[in-house]
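Please, structure for the following, as tokens.
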Amino acid sequence: VVDLGINNPVENYLEALENEQPDILGMSALLTTTMPYMKVVIDTLVEQGLRENYVVLVGGAPLNEEFGRAIGADAYCRDAAVAVETAKEMMARKHNQMSA
């Protein structure tokens, strides 16, 4: 897990993704004012042809499943425990597809 902290520009996400090479990008918002920025990050990944390289999980108090779908996330996770289980399930699916 790499915690980028708060209020990061898209460039920080792209740099961390390039340097760390994760399977999953998780983003969380505590305030409704920061929620739209998640879509900016996802849209930038799409524009740069990188979106399919990552499972994108979103969560945070003001979010819901509908918002996650609307911004193009793979899943909304209501809390950390759900995020862990969702990540495990998605990684298992990804690895099963790769070996098929």
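The chain is about 50% helix and 15% strand. Residues 80-99 form the longest helix (20 residues).
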